[in-house]
Protein backbone atom coordinates (compact mmCIF):
# COMPACT_ATOMS: atom_id res chain seq x y z
CA UNK A 1 0.00 0.00 0.00
CA UNK A 2 1.27 3.45 -0.90
CA UNK A 3 1.17 6.72 1.02
CA UNK A 4 -0.99 9.85 0.85
CA UNK A 5 0.28 13.05 2.40
CA UNK A 6 -0.84 16.66 2.62
CA UNK A 7 0.74 18.84 -0.03
CA UNK A 8 3.53 21.24 0.82
CA UNK A 9 2.55 23.74 -1.90
CA UNK A 10 1.34 27.20 -0.88
CA UNK A 11 -0.06 29.40 -3.67
CA UNK A 12 1.02 32.95 -4.38
CA UNK A 13 -1.23 35.45 -2.61
CA UNK A 14 -1.79 37.21 -5.94
CA UNK A 15 -2.71 33.97 -7.74
CA UNK A 16 -4.95 31.96 -5.44
CA UNK A 17 -7.78 30.70 -7.64
CA UNK A 18 -7.60 27.49 -9.67
CA UNK A 19 -8.11 29.26 -12.99
CA UNK A 20 -5.54 31.93 -12.16
CA UNK A 21 -3.00 29.24 -11.29
CA UNK A 22 -3.77 27.24 -14.43
CA UNK A 23 -3.81 30.13 -16.90
CA UNK A 24 -0.76 31.91 -15.52
CA UNK A 25 1.37 28.78 -15.68
CA UNK A 26 0.16 27.71 -19.12
CA UNK A 27 -0.23 31.00 -20.99
CA UNK A 28 1.10 34.06 -19.15
CA UNK A 29 4.43 32.75 -17.97
CA UNK A 30 7.52 33.52 -20.04
CA UNK A 31 9.91 30.58 -19.93
CA UNK A 32 13.55 30.72 -21.11
CA UNK A 33 14.03 27.92 -23.62
CA UNK A 34 16.79 25.39 -23.02
CA UNK A 35 19.32 24.37 -25.65
CA UNK A 36 17.67 21.58 -27.64
CA UNK A 37 18.58 18.92 -30.16
CA UNK A 38 15.83 17.18 -32.16
CA UNK A 39 15.87 13.50 -33.05
CA UNK A 40 13.35 11.58 -35.16
CA UNK A 41 12.96 8.04 -33.87
CA UNK A 42 11.49 5.47 -36.24
CA UNK A 43 8.88 3.09 -34.85
CA UNK A 44 8.31 -0.58 -35.71
CA UNK A 45 4.99 0.17 -37.44
CA UNK A 46 6.56 2.71 -39.82
CA UNK A 47 5.54 5.82 -37.90
CA UNK A 48 7.85 8.09 -35.91
CA UNK A 49 8.33 9.96 -32.64
CA UNK A 50 10.08 13.33 -32.47
CA UNK A 51 12.31 13.77 -29.42
CA UNK A 52 13.71 17.06 -28.17
CA UNK A 53 16.85 16.64 -26.09
CA UNK A 54 18.32 19.02 -23.50
CA UNK A 55 21.72 17.43 -23.03
CA UNK A 56 23.34 18.19 -19.70
CA UNK A 57 26.06 16.27 -17.94
CA UNK A 58 26.51 12.58 -17.23
CA UNK A 59 23.75 12.42 -14.62
CA UNK A 60 20.50 10.44 -14.84
CA UNK A 61 18.28 10.49 -17.93
CA UNK A 62 14.78 11.99 -17.51
CA UNK A 63 12.03 11.46 -20.09
CA UNK A 64 9.17 14.00 -20.06
CA UNK A 65 5.67 13.22 -21.34
CA UNK A 66 3.54 16.26 -22.21
CA UNK A 67 -0.19 16.69 -21.85
CA UNK A 68 -3.02 16.76 -24.40
CA UNK A 69 -1.94 18.76 -27.47
CA UNK A 70 1.23 19.79 -25.63
CA UNK A 71 4.82 19.79 -26.85
CA UNK A 72 8.30 20.85 -25.87
CA UNK A 73 6.98 24.42 -26.13
CA UNK A 74 4.57 23.88 -23.23
CA UNK A 75 5.79 25.97 -20.31
CA UNK A 76 5.87 23.06 -17.88
CA UNK A 77 8.01 21.00 -20.29
CA UNK A 78 10.51 23.67 -21.26
CA UNK A 79 10.78 24.88 -17.66
CA UNK A 80 11.62 21.44 -16.31
CA UNK A 81 14.00 20.72 -19.19
CA UNK A 82 15.98 23.86 -18.42
CA UNK A 83 16.20 23.11 -14.68
CA UNK A 84 17.28 19.51 -15.28
CA UNK A 85 19.84 20.53 -17.90
CA UNK A 86 21.36 23.06 -15.50
CA UNK A 87 21.55 20.34 -12.84
CA UNK A 88 23.56 17.99 -15.05
CA UNK A 89 20.74 15.66 -16.13
CA UNK A 90 20.16 14.53 -19.69
CA UNK A 91 16.48 15.25 -20.32
CA UNK A 92 14.18 14.85 -23.30
CA UNK A 93 10.57 15.41 -24.30
CA UNK A 94 8.81 12.63 -26.18
CA UNK A 95 6.26 14.18 -28.53
CA UNK A 96 3.26 11.93 -28.82
CA UNK A 97 2.43 11.07 -32.42
CA UNK A 98 1.42 14.19 -34.33
CA UNK A 99 2.35 16.68 -31.58
CA UNK A 100 5.74 17.88 -32.82
CA UNK A 101 4.41 20.19 -35.53
CA UNK A 102 4.09 17.55 -38.25
CA UNK A 103 1.25 15.02 -38.65
CA UNK A 104 2.21 11.41 -38.06
CA UNK A 105 2.09 8.94 -40.94
CA UNK A 106 -0.61 6.50 -39.82
CA UNK A 107 -4.33 6.94 -39.11
CA UNK A 108 -3.77 6.08 -35.44
CA UNK A 109 -2.41 8.79 -33.20
CA UNK A 110 -2.06 9.02 -29.43
CA UNK A 111 -4.51 8.84 -26.56
CA UNK A 112 -4.68 8.74 -22.77
CA UNK A 113 -4.13 4.99 -22.52
CA UNK A 114 -1.62 4.34 -25.32
CA UNK A 115 1.54 2.97 -23.71
CA UNK A 116 3.35 1.06 -26.48
CA UNK A 117 5.31 4.08 -27.75
CA UNK A 118 6.48 4.87 -24.23
CA UNK A 119 7.51 1.26 -23.81
CA UNK A 120 9.49 1.31 -27.03
CA UNK A 121 11.29 4.54 -26.20
CA UNK A 122 12.22 3.39 -22.70
CA UNK A 123 13.75 0.30 -24.28
CA UNK A 124 15.80 2.49 -26.62
CA UNK A 125 16.96 4.62 -23.71
CA UNK A 126 18.01 1.57 -21.72
CA UNK A 127 20.16 0.37 -24.60
CA UNK A 128 21.75 3.79 -25.14
CA UNK A 129 22.42 4.50 -21.47
CA UNK A 130 22.88 1.10 -19.78
CA UNK A 131 24.79 2.48 -16.82
CA UNK A 132 22.61 5.47 -15.98
CA UNK A 133 19.48 5.80 -13.89
CA UNK A 134 16.28 6.55 -15.85
CA UNK A 135 13.19 8.45 -14.68
CA UNK A 136 9.94 9.48 -16.41
CA UNK A 137 7.87 12.58 -15.64
CA UNK A 138 4.33 12.88 -17.03
CA UNK A 139 1.94 15.83 -17.01
CA UNK A 140 -1.85 15.53 -17.28
CA UNK A 141 -2.55 13.10 -20.18
CA UNK A 142 1.14 12.17 -20.13
CA UNK A 143 0.81 11.41 -16.43
CA UNK A 144 -2.14 9.11 -17.11
CA UNK A 145 -0.15 7.27 -19.78
CA UNK A 146 2.81 6.96 -17.41
CA UNK A 147 0.83 5.61 -14.45
CA UNK A 148 -1.11 3.17 -16.62
CA UNK A 149 2.15 1.84 -18.09
CA UNK A 150 3.81 1.52 -14.68
CA UNK A 151 0.80 -0.42 -13.42
CA UNK A 152 0.79 -2.67 -16.47
CA UNK A 153 4.48 -3.44 -15.99
CA UNK A 154 4.43 -3.87 -12.21
CA UNK A 155 7.82 -4.93 -10.85
CA UNK A 156 9.12 -5.36 -14.42
CA UNK A 157 9.02 -1.62 -15.16
CA UNK A 158 12.53 -0.71 -16.43
CA UNK A 159 12.75 2.73 -14.83
CA UNK A 160 14.12 3.89 -11.50
CA UNK A 161 11.65 6.65 -10.59
CA UNK A 162 8.57 8.44 -11.88
CA UNK A 163 6.60 11.63 -11.25
CA UNK A 164 3.05 12.33 -12.44
CA UNK A 165 1.36 15.73 -12.20
CA UNK A 166 -2.33 16.69 -12.43
CA UNK A 167 -3.40 13.27 -13.68
CA UNK A 168 -6.94 12.71 -15.06
CA UNK A 169 -7.34 9.46 -13.09
CA UNK A 170 -10.89 8.81 -14.36
CA UNK A 171 -11.33 10.01 -17.92
CA UNK A 172 -15.12 9.93 -18.07
CA UNK A 173 -15.48 12.17 -15.01
CA UNK A 174 -12.85 14.55 -16.39
CA UNK A 175 -14.72 14.81 -19.70
CA UNK A 176 -17.91 15.64 -17.79
CA UNK A 177 -16.16 18.28 -15.62
CA UNK A 178 -14.68 19.99 -18.68
CA UNK A 179 -18.19 20.42 -20.02
CA UNK A 180 -19.30 22.58 -17.10
CA UNK A 181 -18.76 26.18 -15.99
CA UNK A 182 -15.59 28.06 -16.85
CA UNK A 183 -13.84 24.74 -17.43
CA UNK A 184 -15.57 24.69 -20.81
CA UNK A 185 -12.98 27.29 -21.83
CA UNK A 186 -10.20 24.70 -21.52
CA UNK A 187 -12.29 22.22 -23.48
CA UNK A 188 -12.83 24.82 -26.21
CA UNK A 189 -9.12 25.65 -26.45
CA UNK A 190 -7.98 22.02 -26.57
CA UNK A 191 -10.66 20.84 -28.97
CA UNK A 192 -9.94 23.73 -31.33
CA UNK A 193 -6.32 22.56 -31.56
CA UNK A 194 -7.42 18.95 -31.95
CA UNK A 195 -9.80 19.80 -34.80
CA UNK A 196 -7.14 21.83 -36.59
CA UNK A 197 -4.64 18.98 -36.34
CA UNK A 198 -7.28 16.48 -37.42
CA UNK A 199 -7.97 18.48 -40.60
CA UNK A 200 -4.24 18.68 -41.36
CA UNK A 201 -3.94 14.94 -40.96
CA UNK A 202 -6.90 14.26 -43.27
CA UNK A 203 -4.88 15.57 -46.19
CA UNK A 204 -2.53 12.60 -45.93
CA UNK A 205 -4.28 9.65 -44.29
CA UNK A 206 -7.82 8.20 -44.26
CA UNK A 207 -9.81 8.85 -41.09
CA UNK A 208 -13.22 7.60 -39.86
CA UNK A 209 -14.77 11.06 -40.21
CA UNK A 210 -15.13 13.62 -43.00
CA UNK A 211 -13.99 17.27 -43.01
CA UNK A 212 -17.55 18.58 -42.74
CA UNK A 213 -18.16 16.56 -39.57
CA UNK A 214 -15.11 17.82 -37.72
CA UNK A 215 -16.65 21.12 -36.61
CA UNK A 216 -19.44 19.22 -34.82
CA UNK A 217 -16.90 17.69 -32.42
CA UNK A 218 -17.48 20.30 -29.71
CA UNK A 219 -17.04 18.12 -26.61
CA UNK A 220 -14.45 15.57 -25.57
CA UNK A 221 -17.08 12.84 -25.52
CA UNK A 222 -18.07 13.58 -29.12
CA UNK A 223 -14.46 13.73 -30.29
CA UNK A 224 -13.43 10.58 -28.49
CA UNK A 225 -16.48 8.66 -29.69
CA UNK A 226 -16.08 9.74 -33.34
CA UNK A 227 -12.28 9.73 -33.62
CA UNK A 228 -10.26 8.37 -30.70
CA UNK A 229 -12.27 5.21 -30.06
CA UNK A 230 -12.61 3.89 -33.65
CA UNK A 231 -9.01 4.75 -34.57
CA UNK A 232 -7.59 2.83 -31.62
CA UNK A 233 -9.76 -0.27 -31.40
CA UNK A 234 -12.28 0.72 -28.72
CA UNK A 235 -15.97 -0.14 -28.91
CA UNK A 236 -16.92 3.47 -28.18
CA UNK A 237 -16.18 6.40 -25.92
CA UNK A 238 -17.20 4.64 -22.69
CA UNK A 239 -15.03 1.63 -23.53
CA UNK A 240 -12.11 3.98 -24.21
CA UNK A 241 -12.54 5.88 -20.95
CA UNK A 242 -13.00 2.71 -18.91
CA UNK A 243 -9.98 0.85 -20.26
CA UNK A 244 -7.61 3.85 -20.41
CA UNK A 245 -8.18 5.51 -17.02
CA UNK A 246 -5.08 5.12 -14.86
CA UNK A 247 -6.76 4.86 -11.44
CA UNK A 248 -7.37 1.12 -11.82
CA UNK A 249 -3.65 0.50 -12.53
CA UNK A 250 -2.17 2.28 -9.52
CA UNK A 251 -2.23 -0.70 -7.16
CA UNK A 252 0.36 -2.65 -9.13
CA UNK A 253 2.95 0.13 -9.39
CA UNK A 254 6.19 -0.82 -7.65
CA UNK A 255 8.59 1.80 -9.04
CA UNK A 256 9.13 4.76 -6.65
CA UNK A 257 6.50 7.18 -7.94
CA UNK A 258 5.44 10.64 -6.78
CA UNK A 259 2.00 11.90 -7.80
CA UNK A 260 1.30 15.63 -7.33
CA UNK A 261 -2.32 16.76 -7.40
CA UNK A 262 -4.41 19.80 -6.46
CA UNK A 263 -7.95 19.40 -5.15
CA UNK A 264 -9.00 22.59 -6.95
CA UNK A 265 -7.85 21.31 -10.35
CA UNK A 266 -10.48 22.76 -12.77
CA UNK A 267 -10.11 19.79 -15.14
CA UNK A 268 -11.66 17.39 -12.63
CA UNK A 269 -13.49 17.00 -9.34
CA UNK A 270 -11.91 15.88 -6.04
CA UNK A 271 -13.62 12.48 -6.20
CA UNK A 272 -11.26 11.32 -8.96
CA UNK A 273 -8.37 11.28 -6.46
CA UNK A 274 -7.51 7.68 -5.52
CA UNK A 275 -7.69 6.33 -1.98
CA UNK A 276 -4.73 4.96 -0.08
CA UNK A 277 -5.67 1.31 -0.58
CA UNK A 278 -5.64 1.89 -4.35
CA UNK A 279 -1.95 2.84 -4.39
CA UNK A 280 0.87 0.44 -5.04
CA UNK A 281 3.76 0.06 -2.64
CA UNK A 282 5.96 2.44 -4.63
CA UNK A 283 3.44 5.29 -4.84
CA UNK A 284 3.42 8.50 -2.82
CA UNK A 285 0.43 10.74 -3.52
CA UNK A 286 0.83 14.35 -2.41
CA UNK A 287 -2.47 16.25 -2.44
CA UNK A 288 -2.57 20.06 -2.12
CA UNK A 289 -5.69 22.15 -1.58
CA UNK A 290 -4.61 24.60 -4.27
CA UNK A 291 -2.52 24.61 -7.45
CA UNK A 292 -4.96 24.34 -10.35
CA UNK A 293 -4.09 22.17 -13.34
CA UNK A 294 -0.30 21.96 -13.80
CA UNK A 295 -0.09 25.33 -12.05
CA UNK A 296 1.50 25.33 -8.60
CA UNK A 297 2.77 28.93 -8.75
CA UNK A 298 4.04 30.63 -5.59
CA UNK A 299 6.19 33.70 -4.89
CA UNK A 300 5.74 37.21 -3.54
CA UNK A 301 4.93 38.97 -6.81
CA UNK A 302 4.34 38.33 -10.53
CA UNK A 303 7.89 39.49 -11.16
CA UNK A 304 9.32 36.96 -8.72
CA UNK A 305 7.05 33.99 -9.39
CA UNK A 306 8.25 30.61 -8.19
CA UNK A 307 7.29 27.53 -10.17
CA UNK A 308 7.09 24.99 -7.39
CA UNK A 309 6.98 21.94 -9.66
CA UNK A 310 10.46 22.82 -10.92
CA UNK A 311 11.74 22.69 -7.35
CA UNK A 312 9.75 19.71 -6.11
CA UNK A 313 10.30 17.34 -9.06
CA UNK A 314 14.12 17.67 -9.29
CA UNK A 315 14.37 17.32 -5.50
CA UNK A 316 12.39 14.08 -5.60
CA UNK A 317 14.46 12.76 -8.50
CA UNK A 318 17.71 13.65 -6.75
CA UNK A 319 16.64 11.90 -3.55
CA UNK A 320 15.23 8.83 -5.30
CA UNK A 321 17.80 8.27 -8.04
CA UNK A 322 20.69 8.61 -5.63
CA UNK A 323 19.74 5.18 -4.29
CA UNK A 324 18.49 3.75 -7.60
CA UNK A 325 19.80 0.69 -9.37
CA UNK A 326 20.74 1.98 -12.86
CA UNK A 327 20.49 -1.52 -14.33
CA UNK A 328 16.80 -1.96 -13.41
CA UNK A 329 15.42 -3.64 -16.51
CA UNK A 330 13.04 -6.25 -17.77
CA UNK A 331 15.16 -9.12 -16.48
CA UNK A 332 16.63 -10.36 -19.73
CA UNK A 333 13.52 -9.47 -21.78
CA UNK A 334 13.84 -7.26 -24.83
CA UNK A 335 12.31 -3.85 -24.21
CA UNK A 336 13.00 -2.34 -27.61
Rounded to an integer in angstroms, the radius of gyration calculated over CA atoms is 19 Å
The residue-averaged pLDDT reads 94
Our measurement of the CA-to-CA distance between the termini, rounded to an integer number of angstroms, reads 31 Å
Helical residues, percent: 25-40%
| Proportion in β-strands | 15-25%
Task: Briefly note the structural class of the backbone.
Answer: alpha/beta
Per the principal axes of the C-alpha atoms, what is the gross shape? Answer: globular
Question: How many distinct beta strands?
Answer: 11
Please trace the helix and strand order, writing H or E for each element: EHEEEHEHEHEHHHHHEEEEH
Q: Indicate the low-confidence ranges by residue numbers.
A: 329-336
Strand neighbour order, sheet with most strands: 1-9-8-7-6-4-5-3-2
Helical stretch count? 10
What's the story with the biggest beta sheet?
9 strands, mixed
Outline the fold blueprint.
Elements: E1 3-6, H1 18-28, E2 37-42, E3 48-54, E4 61-65, H2 75-86, E5 90-94, H3 116-128, E6 134-139, H4 141-153, E7 161-165, H5 171-177, H6 184-202, H7 211-214, H8 220-231, H9 237-244, E8 257-262, E9 283-288, E10 297-298, E11 306-307, H10 309-321
Parallel strand pairs: 1-9, 4-5, 4-6, 6-7, 7-8, 8-9
Antiparallel strand pairs: 2-3, 3-5, 10-11
Main attributes of the structure:
336 residues, 10 helices, 33% helix, two-stranded antiparallel sheet, nine-stranded mixed sheet, alpha/beta
